[in-house]
UniProtKB/TrEMBL annotation:
One Pfam family cited in the UniProt record for this chain: PNP_UDP_1
InterPro entries noted in UniProt: Nucleoside_phosphorylase_d, Nucleoside_phosphorylase_sf, Pur_Nuc_Pase_Ino/Guo-sp, Purine_phosphorylase, Purine_phosphorylase-2_CS
Keyword Magnesium listed: no
Organism: Piscibacillus salipiscarius
Protein name per UniProt: Purine nucleoside phosphorylase
Keywords: Glycosyltransferase, Transferase
Superkingdom of the organism of origin: Bacteria
């Protein structure tokens, strides 16, 4: 894998004009608008980057945006890869490896998620304080490449405590409600049944989605500090008597775009 990482890094390096990014952003469904805030952007479509998969999901543009946000050099994924798209766990998380090779030390992962915690409201933002991997797979399965990280990585602090404090303070300065909770990663592409949501609540989940967990596992393996933010785009199945749809997910993320942009920008400024 190291050869492929270096090949992708070398390609991206050619476009960087000396701007080495230290902060990475992975933008979830409908949340890619944040990348439009990046100044002096260098845009690289995934399809041009050697070894990169391509985005197939609505609301995921499929390009890297590199530039400055709040005076910091950042690299944003405007669109991510999901396991349910048919990619392997290693493909889904490959960009995190490349970000690390490019110099990224801190990563902000974002997603649209269904609210399991009944005290949440659609449109709330949630700080991810931990996760539960329900995907039945793990991106680190297979031979371990010691140069990339340890065979048995610690996951007790997968979400960086200092960054969580920064995010909480920023939300309070902005007068924004920031819920906190545990994100459950399922494979999708089906949304959960009411019974599954009940089970996930019993297990300690507060929000559920189909991404993020593999990326955070690889970031931990790579020694990258992670901050996770979910946008609660709808209540998960069984809470309200209405079917779920991806259109609704995108609609809600559009409604909270201002809060989301303000919060993430402020946090980046303090990173
Ligand atoms: C379902 O509506 C899609 O939205 C979420 C789910 O994981 C799924 O892909 O997308 P992100 O997690 O990429 O934000």
């Amino acid at each position: 894998m190291i050869e492929q990482i270096n090949e992708s890094k070398a390609f991206i390096d050619q476009h960087l004009e000396g701007k080495q990014p230290h902060i990475g952003l992975i933008l979830g469904s409908g949340l890619g608008i944040l990348a439009d805030e990046i100044e002096n952007p260098i845009i690289i479509p995934y399809k041009e980057i050697p070894n990169f998969p391509t985005s197939t999901v609505a609301g995921h543009k499929g390009q890297l945006v590199i530039g400055e946000l709040q005076g910091k050099n950042v690299i944003a994924m405007q669109g991510r890869f999901h396991y349910y798209e048919g990619y392997s766990m290693q493909q889904v998380t490959f960009p995190v490896r490349v970000m690390k090779a490019l110099g990224v030390e801190k990563l902000v992962v974002t997603n649209a998620a269904g609210g399991i915690n009944e005290s949440f409201d659609p449109g709330n933002l949630m700080l991810i304080k931990d996760h539960i991997n329900m995907m039945g797979d793990n991106p680190l399965i297979g031979p371990n490449e010691d140069e990339l990280g340890a065979r048995f990585p610690d996951m007790s602090q997968a979400y960086d405590r200092e960054l969580m404090e920064v995010a909480k303070n920023c939300a309070s300065d902005l007068n924004l409600t920031l819920q906190e909770g545990v994100y459950v990663g399922n494979t999708g592409p089906v949304y959960e049944t009411g019974a599954e949501v009940k089970m996930l609540r019993t297990l300690g989940g507060d929000a559920v989605g189909m991404s993020t967990v593999p990326e955070v596992i690889v970031a931990s393996h790579a020694g990258i500090d992670v901050l996770g933010i979910s946008c609660i785009s709808n209540m998960a199945a069984g809470i309200l008597d209405q079917p779920l749809s991806h259109d609704e997910v995108i609609e809600t993320t559009e409604k909270v775009r201002e809060d989301f942009i303000q919060l993430v920008k402020k946090v980046i400024g303090k990173m």
